[in-house]
Amino acid sequence: MGKFHIVREGYVFIFGALAVAVFLGFLLGPLGAVVPGILAAYFTYFFRNPDRVIPADEDLIVSPADGTVQDVVDVEYDDFLKGPGTKVIIFLSIFSVHVNRSPIAGEVKTQKYVCGRFKPAYKDEVGFENERHMIGIENDRLKVTVTQIAGILARRIVSWVTLDDKMEKGDVYGLIKFASCTEIVVPKNVEVLMKKGDKVHGGETIVGRIKD
């Protein structure tokens, strides 16, 4: 089993639940600590950031998130790509790893935050209506966009990067708290290797390959 770390945003939930467990344990006895103890264990699991083996091949684009591929659709025009592309939509359940990773090595050239609604992350319209944060990453070979989208349980998107920040492929750059969705749009010179229903792991599973 690989090592994993806890993202810093998780500590307030973990230690908060542990504090409640201790308080209720003293007040009500051991049974009083059961539920908050279980919550502390779940928060530790939820905010995990496992080590991943990142493919070195520069032609490969990796998944920006863990979860299940909800759909793969053509995009007629993407503002950042300045042309058509292919969008892969990844649904994250409350049991998925919720950190986001850079699908390519490159520089953050654009970002946009929209404070939207909080519909369930599996709904088709969430990418247009829900709270979301998009970044555009570029290197000398291609551009991609990645959008973090909040779900019905999520109330905050976390991003640790800003304009002109440089990232290596697979670098952790953000987090969506609780059930959510992540979208990646790649240009048409990328052969998309994912399909609907695939189980994917951020930083490891291949989204696609740059065509020769």
Automatic annotation (TrEMBL):
PTM remark: Is synthesized initially as an inactive proenzyme. Formation of the active enzyme involves a self-maturation process in which the active site pyruvoyl group is generated from an internal serine residue via an autocatalytic post-translational modification. Two non-identical subunits are generated from the proenzyme in this reaction, and the pyruvate is formed at the N-terminus of the alpha chain, which is derived from the carboxyl end of the proenzyme.
Pathway: Phospholipid metabolism; phosphatidylethanolamine biosynthesis; phosphatidylethanolamine from CDP-diacylglycerol: step 2/2
Tagged with keyword Cell membrane: yes
GO BP annotations, alphabetical order: phosphatidylethanolamine biosynthetic process
This enzyme's EC code(s): 4.1.1.65
Location of Pyruvic acid (Ser) modifications: 180
Keywords: Cell membrane, Decarboxylase, Lipid biosynthesis, Lipid metabolism, Lyase, Membrane, Phospholipid biosynthesis, Phospholipid metabolism, Pyruvate, Transmembrane, Transmembrane helix, Zymogen
UniProt keyword annotation of Lyase present: yes
InterPro entries recorded: PS_Dcarbxylase, PSD-A
Localization terms from the record: Cell membrane
Cofactor(s) needed: pyruvate
Catalytic activity annotation: a 1,2-diacyl-sn-glycero-3-phospho-L-serine + H(+) = a 1,2-diacyl-sn-glycero-3-phosphoethanolamine + CO2
Quaternary data: Heterodimer of a large membrane-associated beta subunit and a small pyruvoyl-containing alpha subunit.
Family membership: Belongs to the phosphatidylserine decarboxylase family. PSD-A subfamily.
Function summary: Catalyzes the formation of phosphatidylethanolamine (PtdEtn) from phosphatidylserine (PtdSer).
Name listed for the protein in its UniProt record: Phosphatidylserine decarboxylase proenzyme
Species this chain originates from: Anaerovibrio lipolyticus DSM 3074
Gene name of the encoded protein: psd
